[in-house]
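To illustrate the input format used throughout this study, we show a single complete record. The first block contains the structure-token representation of the backbone; no residue identities are included at this stage. The design step must infer an amino acid for every position from geometry alone.
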């Protein structure tokens, strides 16, 4: 049962030397406070950066073309080549583990290339297929996205970004209206913004006009040229194997030397995402090491003050031993005092740390969002699992801090303690 008298005895013992106890408690308080703030800041940094990828398929690779670095089949070194529509079909048919293959065409960004009435603006133009939106998820504000019928019939329709809508239509519903895009008229069918603010393909989605891929190929007189190939890979499929298979197919289709390291450029988002995860795992380990080091300094202080307390109370302990106190009673008292010192200071530091993180979150939430929607620090916090882990470490350290003083107290002989002046 919980012994109130024992708790009062412990508290009286602790308060005998208030200044010394407060300084010792401050070391533990500061250690756990720093640990919580560092952990919360790490979470805020991770949430801010990786949150920019939310909505974008992270198991994605991008394929672009470059000049050849090897002569092959009569073609000279340094030849520039383009991907074609046939390459999309070949990749879909010959490469296993591919989920989405979506070609993309860049329509350029000339000065004031998009307009409605007297209002004009300079924005990106890109041609996409409906499958593209399976890779780059969109927040749909008005209307709809480009669909299969738009692509098959080469309709002159478009989906505009939120910044385009703000410039041309003052954020009103523009669906059904016609805008000028590079001198041609397209009917607006939707207004979107990418959920992923950290990835921009041919510029920010908010500043882009997306038209059907087949329509843009025709209006730009590009034939069947593809500027960029976006490929998402099925979960569980080895990324590097797919990369090797895709590059092999493209080289075979376009008479490029199989060992040419330059002609096919691959941007591996999956590998970069894994690198980010490893980076933040390293940051978490570093934070725990620094925080635990600071906490350890406070725990050593607790152990030291308990040693001093045992020295000052040698006669008292001897009397208790002479009156029949068992070693367990002496050990439990010393360790209880150490645990109480650590727990009070540590839980106060833990509570203050959580309070500070909550206030920072409220301040960040109250700030107006940036114009591009990007942020690198958001929602700093510690999970309940982390708080429980920190509490467990704190209590364990409190018991550990009292172990050596308790062992020394138990070794005190009653006759020697009573003789001590």
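Output of the design step:
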């Amino acid at each position: 049962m919980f012994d109130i008298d024992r708790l009062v005895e412990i508290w009286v013992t602790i308060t005998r030397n208030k200044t010394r106890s407060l300084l010792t408690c401050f070391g533990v308080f500061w250690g756990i406070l720093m640990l919580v703030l560092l952990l919360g800041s790490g979470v805020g940094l991770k949430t801010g950066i990786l949150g920019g990828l939310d909505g974008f398929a992270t198991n994605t690779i991008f394929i672009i073309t470059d000049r050849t670095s090897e002569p092959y089949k009569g073609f000279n070194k340094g030849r520039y080549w383009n991907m074609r529509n046939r390459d999309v079909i070949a990749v879909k048919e010959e490469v296993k583990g591919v989920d989405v293959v979506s070609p993309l065409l860049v329509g350029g960004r000339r000065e004031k290339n998009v307009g409605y009435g007297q209002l004009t603006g300079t924005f990106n133009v890109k041609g996409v297929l409906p499958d593209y939106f399976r890779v780059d998820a969109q927040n749909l504000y008005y209307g709809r996205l480009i669909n299969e019928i738009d692509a098959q019939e080469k309709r002159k329709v478009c989906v505009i970004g939120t910044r385009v809508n703000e410039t041309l239509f003052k954020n009103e519903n523009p669906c059904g209206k016609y805008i000028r895009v590079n001198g041609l008229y397209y009917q607006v069918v939707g207004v979107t913004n990418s959920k992923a603010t950290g990835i921009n393909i041919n510029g920010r989605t908010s500043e882009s006009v997306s038209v059907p891929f087949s329509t843009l190929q025709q209006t730009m007189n590009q034939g069947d040229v593809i500027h960029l190939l976006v490929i998402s890979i099925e979960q569980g499929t080895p990324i590097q194997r797919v990369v090797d298979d895709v590059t092999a197919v493209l080289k075979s289709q376009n008479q490029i030397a199989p060992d040419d390291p330059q002609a096919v450029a691959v941007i591996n988002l999956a590998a970069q995402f894994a690198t980010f995860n490893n980076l933040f795992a390293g940051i978490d380990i570093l934070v725990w090491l620094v925080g635990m080091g600071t906490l350890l300094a406070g725990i050593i202080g607790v152990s030291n003050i308990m040693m001093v307390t045992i020295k000052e109370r040698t006669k008292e302990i001897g009397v208790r031993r002479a009156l029949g106190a068992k070693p367990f009673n002496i050990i439990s008292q010393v360790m209880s005092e150490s645990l109480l010192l650590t727990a009070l200071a540590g839980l106060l530091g833990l509570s203050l740390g959580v309070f500070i993180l909550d206030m920072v979150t409220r301040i960040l939430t109250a700030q107006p969002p940036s114009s591009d929607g990007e942020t690198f620090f958001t929602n700093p916090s510690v999970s309940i699992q982390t708080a429980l882990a920190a509490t467990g470490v704190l209590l364990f350290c409190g018991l550990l801090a009292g172990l050596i003083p308790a062992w020394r107290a138990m070794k005190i002989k009653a006759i020697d303690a009573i003789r001590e002046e």
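Structural context for interpreting the output: The chain has two domains: 4-54+274-419, 60-268. The first strand starts at residue 60 and ends at 65.
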